């Protein structure tokens, strides 16, 4: 998603007092284009919950993931 759309999404979430769940399961596997920054990195209001997984990048049978949120 382009940066301007990401910023619009964050503005909209702030206006609606909503949370956004960003599932970035394939970030480690995008080799063709330079990846856009995570939506969480643009979040200044604590509205994004970032979800990731190590299953694709480390070991498919591992089934290990993580969450990054705000306090």
UniProtKB/TrEMBL annotation:
InterPro entries: Aminotransferase_I/II_large, HTH_trans_reg/aminotransferase, PyrdxlP-dep_Trfase, PyrdxlP-dep_Trfase_major
Span of domain Aminotransferase class I/classII large: 7-70
Entry keywords, A to Z: Aminotransferase, Transferase
Gene3D superfamilies: Type I PLP-dependent aspartate aminotransferase-like (Major domain)
Xref: Pfam families: Aminotran_1_2
GO molecular function term, any single one: pyridoxal phosphate binding
Taxonomic superkingdom: Bacteria
Protein name (Swiss-Prot/TrEMBL): Aminotransferase class I/II-fold pyridoxal phosphate-dependent enzyme
